[in-house]
Amino acid sequence: MAVGLPAAVLAQSGLPSADELAATDDFSALDTAAEPATPRAQAQPAPAAPSEARNEDRTVQADDAPRLATPGQSQEGSRGFHGISSARPGAQNSFGIGFLGEIYAGEGAVRATDSNNTLVGNLVVQGTFHEHFSANFRLQARNSVNTYGRPQAMLSQGDMLLGLRGHLVATPWLDLAADLSFDLPSSFGSVGPTFSAMSVRPRMLATADLGELFGAVNGEPIPLYGHFNFGYRFDNSEKLFEGVSNPTRIERFAYGINAYDMLEIGLGFEYQLPYVTPFLAWNLNIPVNGADGLCDRDRPLDCVADAGAGSYPQVLSLGLRGEPVKHLGLQAGIDFGLTSKDAEGLGVTLPFNFILGLTYTIDPVAELVVEEKIVEQVIEKAPPQGILVGLVTDRVTGKPVGGAQIEYLTRAENIQLTGATSGAFRSYAFGPGIVLEVMVTHPNYETATMTHIVVDGEQPIEFKLKAAARAGTVRGTVTDINGAAVANATIKLNGAKPVEVKTGADGRYSAEVQAGPYTVAAMASTYQTAGKDVRVEANGTVDLDITLQPAAKESFVEVSTEEIKITDRIQFETGAATILPGSFNVLDQVASVIFENPQIKKMQIQGHTDDVGSAELNLELSQQRADAVRTYLIGKGVAAERLTAKGVGSQQPLLPNTTNRNRSLNRRVEFRIVN
């Protein structure tokens, strides 16, 4: 309720009128009621002192004055533009949110004669929580498609950056800030962040009001601002590929990987005009402290030390920020790459990159509005309302169903959710007599609907849901190597809900299980265990016939928590990766152990050689042999995602390579459990 006084009462009291308050941003008149109010004809807005205009977030503008664009957000989410961050804080408790997209399409940028299309999306958030403290956050997704890439499309989702910043007003025209950023990339080849590859960057920021510094022109201050950024990035992005391989030039560009720390320098200017703000920026990254051994190995490109300053990542940016609607900013610009040479260990600097953005500023500081009106208070009785007090349960068990969606099909109200443990909900208030069609949905249950006529007060309502069919079937026949049925064999299905069944006299079996991945193992007396990893779909059927071999006369396999140890060697053709038939029995026993131990979720197959020959050829041969063993086990039914292969070469000998016997023992295959 707004309460005001008549204009005549205001005039007699000596308080300023609404027009007088609107004409000035000095509210001290509210504290000097004893002084006569200035007549409206004489009221003039007081000219703003130079220091009052130093922060555009706090400038009070007349209603008829052209609107100035609010500060935008950089590609990291901080206040600024493109690669430049501003040292100025926003108004206390103000926030900004935006989306900045980067687009490039061209040829020969990453690799000669290639074709590359790159699309980057940055969701950015910035907040000023105190006049001396602000923070920013960026969530990034990158997609790079290169004709020479393997694969051609390389996608990175969930890269995160967090920046923390302390601010200080050094002089009326100069702001300083200390900035600390944490850049956390998403994992390569898996889901989730890689903390070991997190880069950290301390940085100093300075922003100068150059108009305040150099004075006014024709009585008007120059709306020109300068920004200077200086920081050091401890870059650990190279560790994304740690233990995998050396990243290619295309991979370095696609995933933003550098083998150097960076000394970062940024200089930017923006000229604030009504509704729009053009800006210019220059960023230079100086590579320092390269990764160990980077320039020792064979490489297709010069090292930075040889390539010189022309290889330093360097960008010139031009752009424009506008504000067609108050607090809603539009941003467009282009980055021009100034790097003239390529160097080993550095990502590619694109010749150009388009950047488009949309930002929105949230400022909780409300504008002062003074109204002259007389308010008559009228108290009315609230109209009658009806509320549904509901419960959603399982039809069979009677247990509450949490997380069910409640939707009112004949109304525009938002969808509601039942309590996670109670299964209860309380509807919106509706007028009596309204006909509601209520629909309840849950992924594990069939949809239920009910029509209800609203009456005054609270009305109980209950939905009893029928569970949706989500089971599948695994069935088949178990036979020996001669095709004869194996009766009374035990079939174990280990997965979401383990199930165990027996084969009949005809060797047939059938099991109903919940949908999901399963390890199926067939076991019978005097036979060696066999099976297969399968995925069962809801309401689907998996047909799986299993052939059992006679149990081995001698066991060559032992299982521990760390490895599957074999007491016999895997034999290969000399200098090749072809497995000799004499080793099939050992590998069949390894497959049996994997099926009998479903807790082995992931296993690494390691290939080792002796030191005869070049280290490069030994490393390649050991990888080929590890791959051959992995392929054999997959052929026996083990899921490919449970197995990885790694060639170690001669790097991890069991014994010194001083005798033929020692070298023979060093040529081996190991099965490491890496759950």
CATH architecture of the largest domain: Beta Barrel
Overall SS class: mainly beta
Largest sheet: 12 strands, antiparallel, barrel
Number of domains: 5
Low-confidence region ranges: 1-63, 366-370
The tally of helices reads 8
| Side-by-side strand order of the widest sheet | 3-4-5-6-7-8-11-12-13-14-15-16
Helical percent range?
10-25%
CATH superfamily of the largest domain: monomeric porin ompg
Count of DSSP strands? 37
| Span of the ends, CA to CA | 64 Å
Overall geometric form: flat
Global Rg:
36 Å
Mean of all residue-level pLDDT scores: 84
Tell me about this structure.
This protein is mostly beta strands and 675 residues long. The chain has five domains: 7-47, no CATH class; 80-362, Beta Barrel (Porin), CATH 2.40.160; 386-465, Carboxypeptidase-like, regulatory domain (Immunoglobulin-like); 471-550, Sandwich (Immunoglobulin-like), CATH 2.60.40.1120; 557-673, 60s Ribosomal Protein L30, Chain: A, CATH 3.30.1330.60. Helices cover 10% and strands 42% of the residues. The chain has eight helices and 37 strands. The longest helix is centred in the C-terminal third of the chain and has 21 residues, at 615-635. The protein starts with 6 loop residues before the first helix and ends with a strand.
